[in-house]
Protein 1
Amino acid sequence: MTEFQEKLRQQHEESMHRELQALLATADKAEAEISRKDFDGFKKLFHRFLQVKGPAVDWAKINRPPEDSIQPYDRIKAKGLPDDIAACLNKLAVVKLNGGLGTSMGCKGPKSLISVRNENTFLDLTVQQIEHLNKAFKADVPLVLMNSFNTDEDTKKILQKYKHHKVKIHTFNQSRYPRINKESLLPIATNIGMGGDNAEAWYPPGHGDVYASFHNSGLLDKLIAEGKEYIFVSNIDNLGATVDLFILNHLMSQPADKRCEFIMEVTDKTRADVKGGTLIQYENHLRLLEIAQVPKAHVDEFKSVTKFKIFNTNNLWISLPAMKRLQQKNSMDLEIIVNPKTLDGGLNVIQLETAVGAAIKSFDNALGVNVPRSRFLPVKTSSDLLLVMSNLYSLDAGSLTMSRMREFPTTPHVKLGSSFTKVQQFLARFESIPDMLELDHLTVSGDVTFGKNVSLKGTVIIIANHGDRIDIPAGAMLENKIVSGNLRILDH
């Protein structure tokens, strides 16, 4: 049987190789060069995908990480800061993962261009944060954006507006991989183009691609030549992911032979984070365990808040020389995430992806740092958007911080129904964002609008059944209330 499977595997690889060559033949010279590099990476991934059967982890070998491998943030903060912060900052570059579209929030174009606060987009806030650092410490921290073929063009147009800001901005593109037909295991693309029938034929292969595409773009070498030693990598939609000077100092103050090459910021799990990846000890290495790698029988155990107490925020600090070394040796073995999709026409395809944090096991002296929850503030839905637009946060030099007026450090739990999913709909339903300083929980469902200066406290549940509509009047104060039925307010 194994001989048969081996032959089948070879056959699949040969067929894939032929198809990719045929696609390359449809490209012009410049395009073929870029696509060839992309396809080399894709073939390695496909090869490993065919070899690995079953879950990527043996559940019995999973152990809790050793005590000293996940440090509490307070211990790192206790070291204080050096006199010359600029010297540390000058060895840092900030990388933002900017490959995603705003489609899940009903927006066209890159997600980073959605306005999140006082007309500022994710990108505006990022540029403001880094510019503030550079000015305050007379430093030179560049911003690097990893775009995808979906976001590159729109992002580059927008970058013109930051020309006079004190931030150098570089961009590079993550790879473009072919989606595979689930049955035939062959690409669905008919040529290298991205228009017409081919629009759905390609995908960006997850943020684990940052290592290869950063290296291929030449930017890795450029930054090393400029004296940069570390990058701080995070998702552009995580508004809590600002440059932390204490973590940076911790990295810079290590003795040369014990240099920590990789820090993953983790934070305590709540019930809302049960799907987040976690750190485990596996075969003597720290390793990231994602829900996609967990055998079905153990998914509930993985989601438990007691066994796996922390999750990965995807805020990572990575050594550039180490990254170069591992890329050159081709020794980063990132677990494959198989992402099944059904296209509009009903065709079942698979995308082979990798996660940036999965590389933690390949770096020396890797460390987890358990950071405050405030460093994890992602905006994935309109419910998240409501929180960051509200008076729960104050904005200072591009950074959001929890308002001092709020008595509890935790954010309220907000669930907005499907009428609020798209940003345009969401904005149309609020004349102004309610006062939420004393809110614990908000659930809104159905056709609901909010007038000006509404204030919400405690637990508030507002439910308009099908066909009903509820207009919360201007100036209303709802504290521990359930509102249901019909409430129409019309101009006289």
Protein 2
Amino acid sequence: MLNKKPLGLQLFECVRGSPISFRSCQALVLVLTFLSYASYHATRKTTSIVKSVLDPKKNLGLLHWPSHLYLQNLKGTENNMTLSSGWAPFNAEDGTALLGEIDLAFLGVYAIGMFFAGHLGDRVDLRILLTIGMIGTGLFTAAFGAGYWFDIHNFYYFLGMQMMAGLFQSSGWPSVVAVVGNWFGKSKRGLIMGIWNAHTSVGNISGSLIAAAMLKYGWCWSFAVPGIMIALVGLTVFLLLPVGPDVIGIQEDLHLKDSEKADMDTPLLERRSEGKEKAVGFIEAWRIPGVAPFALCLFFCKLVAYTFLYWLPFYISHTAIGGRYLSDSSAGVLSTLFDVGGVVGGILAGHISDHLDARALTAASFTFCAIPALFFYRIYGSISLTWNIALMFVTGMLVNGPYALITTAVSADLGTHSSLNGNSRALATVTAIIDGTGSIGAAVGPLLTGYISSRSWSAVFTMLMASALVAGLLLTRLVVAEVAAKMEARRTPDHAAASDLPVSSMGEP
């Protein structure tokens, strides 16, 4: 299916009387893809905000480390607890577990769909695929909230709506990465994609604020408003998004520096040459040096990140902070600081990995540092609001840093690995493998949390710290290879220019 110039751009050029410039198209692509994936995450975040309304039980019997720090005056805290009747079937004794199963349904379908989305993107217009994914996501997100208006209490209705939303959302990431890759070269890839990847945290923050603000009108609106918003952004994408320079027939800006032009000759995602390149197989892509360890590392990184994504507002509203419980909306607003830290962490991880030319070392360092951050947030986060804010920000920075790095710069690096001999058709497959594997972890974490948290949040944090430890250990071999390569490069300076890829992707299989 041939890509066509978007109708909105045709109209703009007609009114303007001249074609749009290369630089303007780059800016337009960055803005539209940023808004697109931010809106995906805004709809994804809604469920975590509404959890405390659907299942409003305040669990005063939660276990803490150490327990004497958290013994509260029950009479004092009871006055701060505002209980509602909740929404059947989620307000029953097993409501927390049911909410975990809802998360699993969404993320499970999302992970499975991810493995097919890249393959589908090679055969259809990415702009159409992204538009359908966004409108479909908006429709089924709003349909989940419609259960309130139609007084639906059937668990399988909500389960089905989340599964369909997850299916449509799976087309988002491969599409936006492919479009950005068509327009931008790999110079300062970690920093540029670290900044661009802030759409994840921006979407989480905006989704939290919108959903929390809508709660006072009924939890249905917390789903309906983000659903309408992503559908509108999807229509904008349909009208304006150019998926590649060849689609609109423009040439590079004559004022581009020679070095920048050379860089543009090596895009993050090169368009496949018709009839010249054979698509890399699924098993073959797994054998690319670095793919397996980074994919498995992302499994545990996303397990941690998505547990916070789906359960942090619930955890905050069910934990006494400074001796009192926050309202559901206040907990939702406070949880956005985790994502603010995530923005900083993603940019910082990208910049450090560019400076060191060491993706694995950077990712592993962040994951190991996340372990004490999780421990301290659990112990001291309830002392006061100030402590909670500070520790939540640091935890978000360290948890989301490697997650952002692996899903963007690392995936692009490995998809253009030297062992492929220039075959550009591996990148979509590699991206799908890495993020798809990570998404399985994203499904497992929230599900386990739904069951474990009903007994002890301390056990949940133990699971998260263990996951961060395993994530870091999975990169040990690559870290050793990077350090060894750096030491060798210092002894033989000419060797440092032998490859333009990070040393983490240079090892032999």
